[in-house]
Amino acid sequence: MMMESFIGFFEEIPTWFRSLILIGGIVIFWIAEGMLPLFKNSYRRYRHAGLNLFFTLTTAIIGFGLAGALLWASTFVSENEYGLLYIFSLPLWAEIVIGVLLLDLIGAYFIHWLEHKIKWMWKFHLVHHTDTHVDVTTGLRHHPGETIFRITFTILAVMVVGAPIGIVMLYQSLSVLFAHITHANVNLNRKVDNVLSYVFVTPHMHKVHHHYTQPLTDTNYGNIFSIWDRIFRTFAYVKDTESLKYGIDTHMKPEENDELGNLLAIPFQKYRPPLGKFSEKDE
């Protein structure tokens, strides 16, 4: 009964709860960053937040706008018993765990990997990587075009997995929460971070992905679960994450990475190949 009640809550998840995760998470980790920062460098924090919150707003608007398509996909697979979850008869707890795992694989890890491999998709995802001061507000700094990619792949994942709406809403809630946690500029205990990173994406693990040069830029694609990076050999570990430099080496000038107009235009500008490579001296 407890599992039925748990997933039943997410089937009828109220808007206020989803908003609380989005806004409350940003506020809580914003405060935590001031108390226990990983990087103590100074930057125009409120201006930086304002720019990133613009993209958070566009992400939310597009997400709510495409919510009908997501609901239709989930309803279709549930009514027709279509998808991987219907191959075997599983207890509810197993359906939830497997469902969230596979939604994370297809709807987050796989599309993220594709965005780094396909040039025209990379130019949209590039906006996320141009942030030279990664903090909790960076988590949803996505170009509107990229938001459409990600929701499209989430819908695809729902169709493949056969995920009912309760599991879909649980996954999306966890996804937003982890976006806050993994981008927040907080100095989590290294031993705790290392242990958790065997299963979950952690702050120190994801900071490696935001290093400004390859090959580290092309590692640690995970959103909720780190196991996908370990299975597909895209996991990378850097002992001293405080030595990392954020941003992307093709767009390090402030007028390119800190101006809204240029950020919106980046996907339509000429592709720029990466300039440098991470070396052991950088670690």
Describe this structure in words.
This protein is mainly α. It contains 13 helices and no strands. It has helices at residues 2-11, 15-35, 45-65, 67-80, 92-117, 119-129, 144-161, 165-183, 190-196, 203-209, 227-231, 254-257, 260-265. The longest helix is centred in the middle third of the chain and has 26 residues, at 92-117. The radius of gyration is 19 Å and the shape is globular. The termini are far apart. 41% of the residues are buried. Residues 279-283 have low confidence and may be disordered.
Q: What are the salient characteristics of this protein?
A:
single chain, 283 residues, mainly alpha, disordered C terminus
So what's the overall shape?
A: globular
Calculate Rg over CA atoms.
Answer: 19 Å
Number of helices: 13
Q: What portion of residues is helical?
A: 55-70%
On the 0 to 100 scale, the average pLDDT is 92
Number of domains: 1
Head-to-tail CA distance between termini: 50 Å
What oligomeric state is this?
single chain
Which class of secondary structure composition applies to the elements?
mainly alpha
User: How much strand?
Assistant: under 5%
**Which regions have little confidence, pLDDT < 50, spanning 5+ residues?**
279-283
**How many runs of DSSP E, i.e. beta strands?**
0
What sequence of helices (H) and strands (E) makes up the elements? HHHHHHHHHHHHH
The major pleated sheet works out as: none
